[in-house]
Automatic annotation (TrEMBL):
Species in which this protein is naturally found: Bifidobacterium tsurumiense
Keywords carried by this UniProt record: Cell inner membrane, Cell membrane, Membrane, Sugar transport, Transmembrane, Transmembrane helix, Transport
UniProt-listed InterPro entries: ABC_transp_permease
GO CC term (a single one): plasma membrane
Pfam families (UniProt xref): BPD_transp_2
GO molecular function: transmembrane transporter activity
UniProt xrefs under PANTHER family: ABC TRANSPORTER PERMEASE PROTEIN YPHD-RELATED, ABC TRANSPORTER PERMEASE PROTEIN YPHD-RELATED-RELATED
Main subcellular location: membrane
UniProt membrane topology term: Multi-pass membrane protein
Protein name: ABC sugar transport system, permease protein
Subcellular localization, as worded in the UniProt entry: Cell membrane
């Protein structure tokens, strides 16, 4: 047993160690407040589900040495677009409206990054501002209720027995992300571009297409996340998804994806999302204010970046 423990690279598996340690710590400190109850564990999984969906796409983005800061704001715009379209035109147009938001944002982000060669940080920072502004503009900053029970049930608000449907969505995206990253050319090409785009180009990989694809996929996953927010909370609001980019990026980095690109783990990103949700849940049960929670999350991101850099150097 000791020999097995010595062989474990705890830096490479920090996210899994973190899940176990944080769960045990909160179980001891907050056991009396129901942290380990079945209801709360399902709540943690429910809270992590939307982050898991966006983290699957963000793994490809960061793995290709890019970044997407607009995922949270795209989710907010998709939620209000879906809600408004359902209210005026019905269920199917509402779903198409949400997906259209992701497609438009993804095409713009992808084209500017891949073909105009503008740094993804600047492109997605601008997109974050644009989508937040548009969402506030078209709604006059007011919530848009969704009264379609079928939509609310399927898109995050329903349960099969005690099992939330939104967790099923996360499991589907997780399986898809793992398969794409580990079993397809897209996954191999993405990491190759992140490791060395010049070498990837001379190896016959279409670097521009890969960069466009990962940015487009990230926006589409963000739009789906926004639609799930709308279904789970039965309304569209521009605030839905606000700050999620922090949790998503932290989850991906903690999961073992290198900030410099070239290495990624969809399984690790999922574990990172659960860890972030567990931390958020524990902090709420501990009675910390929203501002204090933001401070703790910021510290976690800094530590994640530090660990990522140490891993890259080793």
């Amino acid at each position: 047993m000791l020999q097995f423990i010595k062989k474990i690279d705890f830096r490479q598996n920090i996210v899994y160690v973190g899940v176990v340690v944080i769960f045990a710590l909160f179980a001891i400190m907050l056991g009396g407040k129901g942290f380990t109850s079945t209801v709360n564990i399902l709540n943690i999984l429910r809270q992590s589900s939307i982050i898991v969906i966006m983290a699957m796409a963000m793994t490809f983005v960061i793995g290709s040495a890019e970044i997407d800061l607009s995922v949270g704001s795209i989710a907010g715009l998709a939620s209000v677009s879906t809600a408004m379209a359902i209210a005026r035109f019905g269920l199917v147009p509402g779903i198409l409206a949400g997906l259209a938001v992701g497609a438009i944002c993804g095409i713009v982000n992808g084209a500017l990054v891949a073909f105009a060669k503008i740094p993804s940080f600047l492109v997605t920072l601008a997109m974050m501002g644009v989508t937040v502004g548009v969402a506030q503009w078209i709604t006059d900053s007011s919530p848009q209720p969704i009264l379609d029970k079928g939509y609310n049930f399927v898109f995050g608000g329903g349960q099969i027995g005690v099992f939330p449907i939104i967790i099923i969505w996360a499991m589907v995206f997780f399986a898809f992300g793992v398969t794409l990253l580990n079993r397809t050319r897209l996954g191999k090409y993405t990491l190759a571009v992140g490791a060395n785009p010049v070498a990837a180009k001379y190896s016959g990989i279409n670097v521009k297409r890969v960069r466009f694809g990962v940015m487009f996929g990230s926006a589409m996953c963000a739009a789906v996340a926004g639609m799930l927010y709308a279904g789970r909370l039965q309304s569209g609001r521009y605030q839905w998804g606000s700050g999620d980019e922090m949790n998503v990026i932290a989850a991906v980095i903690l999961g073992g994806t290198a900030l410099s690109g070239g290495r990624g783990s969809a399984v690790g990103a999922m574990a990172g999302a659960v860890l972030m949700a567990m931390i958020n849940n524990g902090l709420i049960l501990a009675g910390l204010t929203s501002a204090q929670q933001q401070v703790v999350r910021g510290i976690i991101i800094v530590l994640a970046v530090a660990l990522a850099k140490r891993n890259n150097r080793s």
